[in-house]
Amino acid sequence: MLAGTYNMLTEQGSTLYRVINLEYPDTTDPSGETYLPWDLNGYTARMQVRRLIEDTAFMIEITTENGGINIEPLGVADKGRIDLTMTAAQTAALDSDGVYDLEIIDTGGTGTVSKVIKGTFSLIPEVTR
User: CA torsion angle for 57, 60, 61, 66 (degrees, to 10)?
Assistant: First the structure.
């Protein structure tokens, strides 16, 4: 699977909340226009923002383990859904634009890691502090 591109715009000092619904093409539809929700049962996720891809240190990391990412498996939500949250304090601590990607990990089976989205991470500086 190739990751989609989503360039994220974030306001420094404000809570960031994004919802991602993962779908895949229905192979039984010859038109290729039908998509099915991805069952995220047994998955975890992680996302890192770095100033540059080459940087060894990340500016922020959110995961299912640290509470920054919540996964709603199929049946709980209408579609396999990933909720991303950064607190106002976390975004206030950011000081530059960067790049990011979001990976899901199949912990219930193969251990496969899949990058689902990637892009730039643009920061709008905070005026009111």
Answer: 130
Residue 3, φ and ψ in degrees, nearest 5: -70, 140
Average pLDDT rounded to a whole number, residues 98-104: 97
pTM for this one? 0.89
- CB neighbourhood size of 77 (10 A): 16
Classify each residue of 57-73 as buried b or exposed e, where b means 16 or more C-beta atoms within 10 Å of its C-beta.
Answer: eebbebebeeebbebbe
- When pLDDT is averaged across residues 67-91 and rounded to a whole number, the result is 86
Q: Give the integer Cα–Cα distance in Å for 104 and 35.
A: 19
Q: What is the 3-state secondary structure (H, E, C) of 33-99?
A: CCEEECCCCCEEEEEEEECCCCCCCCCEEEECCCCCEEEECECCECCCEEEEEECHHHHHCCCCCEE
Residue type, 28: T
